[in-house]
Amino acid sequence: MSAAEAPLELGRFLPYRLSVTAECMSRVFAESYERRFGLTIPEWRVMAVLGEGEAPRPTQGIIEATEMDRVKVSRAVTRLVDKGLVIRRTAPEDQRSQILALSRKGVALYRQIVPLAHALQAELTAGLGHEELALLDRMLAKLHARARAIGAG
């Protein structure tokens, strides 16, 4: 039997395994962020991107950085603005575009969450050595780049 004719073993199918692992890890983070800070994963991702730099970012930059769809980002931004965590203004060069930044309240919350995120990541990767983590990082970067190339093609 050729590889094309063989049944698909879902438990050994890489895209499935990566998806299940990512979902499981996201749930761990989501439960913590929701319980302690009242944030959903999309909201936290928007805040994380905005917190990476000092400069405000356009909505399109958030979409590209998180690879979330436009509707999910838009809903997360609206909730964050309503919570007073994000400031949204119209881009001067394009009235259809919005520029986003963390508010003072958003920066303060971001600074509370970052240590928790680092601690959760450390807990999740505790069974891996430095070399394994470095290898995993390189492998994930290659897989991500390849998936993007295939998706763009």
Task: Give a written overview of the molecule.
Helix content is 66%, strand content 11%. It is built from six helices and three strands, in the order ααβααββαα. Strands 1-3-2 form a three-stranded antiparallel beta sheet. The model has no long low-confidence stretch (mean pLDDT 91). The protein has a domain of 71 residues: Arc Repressor Mutant, subunit A (Orthogonal Bundle). β2 and β3 form a beta hairpin. α1 crosses α5 and α2 packs across α4. The chain has 153 residues and is mainly α. The radius of gyration is 18 Å and the shape is globular.
- Predict the CATH topology of the domain at 39-109: Arc Repressor Mutant, subunit A
In CATH's first tier, which class of the domain at 39-109 applies? Mainly Alpha
Largest sheet: 3 strands, antiparallel
End-to-end CA span: 31 Å
Secondary structural class: mainly alpha
CATH architecture descriptor of the domain at 39-109? Orthogonal Bundle
Question: What is the general shape?
Answer: globular
Strands side by side in the biggest sheet: 1-3-2
Helix and strand run: HHEHHEEHH
Q: What's the pLDDT, averaged over the residues?
A: 91
Calculate Rg over CA atoms.
Answer: 18 Å
Fraction of residues in H or I helices: 55-70%
Which stretches are low in confidence, meaning pLDDT under 50 for 5 or more residues running? none
Number of strands: 3
* CATH homologous superfamily heading of the domain at 39-109: Winged helix-like DNA-binding domain superfamily/Winged helix DNA-binding domain
Number of helices: 6
Work out the strand percent: 5-15%
